[in-house]
Structure to design on (474 residues):
């Protein structure tokens, strides 16, 4: 049976590879939006996670909230099972750009398949934030849209308050945000035409078929190109959240990426010929994923602002005249490959290391099936270096009492990780997949000091007070 699973997470920070999920909440309902069940999970802080003070003053989770929570490994298995129930459509508000990536790394470092909830056993994903943008453009009267300095706000907190979507709880509390998204979706679903049309944007096969039906409406040197209309809240109020784009082909390095060049910036070739600046103009679209691309037909095209259509038309003329430069841009982005990051931390290696292979999955299954005291023995027998490290980290993070019986040199890797995040024991850093670094204690205390300059209420001050003591003890 197909069901919708509305979910939300609150986290220790913004880095999906190094921060952790602290709370998970979900509401499962049938296709008619009748509620079936609810789940709430609270997770203890891991010993190697340095909390971000700015994250904590938003969700306000306290030590008392977290200390009674589940171990991360146990929580990961429970949440993985919830999301992978056959026929589950997992969805939330801005989940595809935030929550879902946290889930992927969350599952990966706990040796669970990070992708099956996206496609396995009839499972799929959706996101209500881009649907909100579509409804704002094509049926604005369906809800009351909050305004901020004369511009529409797409923040769930503001939409919820403006439309009384919830009557209890507070914003940035996981179940509260789930209820708000659930109630908002029920309103959107009343417009069957737009809602049912929108669902197909998150279906890989249907999105593929729909885009491939776009007409080849532009020709350069005998080569046909498709035009489309990109819809995203990230395009901004001043662009009415829409932009004309031209399809420049598929990535050679990544077969699932379809490349679209934005046409909403004046003198586009001046920017596009600079590789760094052109990265912001080329959208790497995966079928069934964001952003939403509409066909260039009258009922969609007429929603574009006149100034943007003129800019796009001028850009197309320039592209035709300077076709050699245009094809240079195409070749650059088709050939583009994400840079290899040396010394990448195993927790952050999801994309660089790739999918788990069959042999790794067999070892993972044996690890999950073993009792806690035997997990370290199984980890030591693993031949894959990455899952051996991840398995040992699971034991270190979740079962410290069991480790008292072991004093082997294999545990030095986790101790080195801890040294890197402490105040002054190491100058080396823990590298992330964006060539970023894991938050260490010194930087967290500096962030905390800066956060204290904000206008804070008593509850937020109490949270920062215990955070300071917690980080200093690390």
């Amino acid at each position: 049976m197909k069901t919708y699973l509305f979910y939300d997470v609150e986290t220790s920070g913004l880095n999906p590879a190094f921060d952790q999920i602290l709370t998970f909440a979900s509401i499962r309902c049938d296709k008619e939006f009748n509620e079936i069940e609810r789940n709430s999970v609270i997770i203890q802080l891991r010993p190697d996670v340095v909390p971000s003070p700015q994250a904590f003053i938003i969700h306000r989770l306290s030590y008392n909230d977290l200390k009674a929570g589940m171990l991360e490994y146990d929580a990961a298995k429970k949440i993985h099972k919830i999301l992978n129930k056959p026929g589950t459509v997992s969805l939330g508000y801005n989940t595809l750009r935030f929550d879902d990536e946290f889930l992927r790394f969350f599952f990966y470092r706990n040796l669970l398949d990070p992708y099956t909830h996206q496609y396995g056993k009839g499972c799929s994903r959706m996101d209500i934030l881009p649907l909100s943008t579509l409804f704002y453009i094509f049926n604005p009267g369906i809800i009351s849209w909050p305004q901020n300095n004369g511009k529409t706000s797409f923040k769930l907190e503001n939409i919820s308050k403006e439309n009384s979507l919830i009557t209890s709880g507070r914003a940035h509390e996981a179940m509260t945000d789930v209820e708000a998204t659930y109630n908002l979706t029920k309103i959107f679903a009343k417009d069957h035409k737009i809602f049912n049309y929108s669902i197909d944007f998150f279906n890989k096969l249907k999105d593929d078929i729909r885009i491939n039906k776009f007409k080849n409406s532009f020709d350069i040197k005998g080569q046909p190109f498709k035009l489309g209309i990109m819809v995203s809240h990230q395009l901004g109020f001043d662009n009415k959240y829409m932009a004309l784009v031209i399809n420049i082909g598929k990535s050679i390095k990544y077969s699932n990426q379809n490349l679209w060049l934005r046409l909403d910036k004046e003198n586009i070739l001046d920017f596009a010929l600079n590789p760094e600046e052109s990265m912001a103009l080329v959208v790497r679209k995966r079928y069934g994923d964001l952003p939403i691309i509409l066909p260039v037909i009258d009922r969609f095209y007429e929603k574009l602002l006149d100034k943007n259509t003129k800019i796009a038309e001028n850009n197309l003329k320039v592209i035709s005249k300077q076709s050699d430069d245009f094809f240079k841009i195409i070749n650059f982005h088709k050939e583009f490959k994400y840079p290899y990051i040396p010394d990448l931390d195993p927790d952050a290696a999801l994309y660089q290391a790739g999918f788990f292979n069959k042999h790794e999955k067999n070892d993972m299954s044996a690890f999950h099936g073993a009792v806690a005291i035997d997990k370290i023995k199984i980890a030591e027998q693993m031949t894959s270096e990455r899952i051996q490290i991840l398995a040992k980290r699971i034991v270190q993070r979740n079962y410290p009492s069991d480790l008292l019986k072991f004093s082997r040199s294999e545990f030095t890797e986790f101790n080195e990780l801890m040294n890197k995040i402490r105040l002054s024991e190491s100058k080396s850093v823990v590298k992330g997949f964006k060539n970023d670094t894991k938050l260490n204690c010194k930087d967290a205390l500096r962030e905390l000091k800066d956060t204290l300059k904000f206008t804070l209420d008593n509850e937020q001050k109490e949270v920062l007070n215990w955070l300071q003591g917690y980080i200093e003890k690390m």
DSSP finds 23 helices and 13 strands in the chain. The two ends are 47 Å apart (CA to CA). The mean pLDDT is 93.
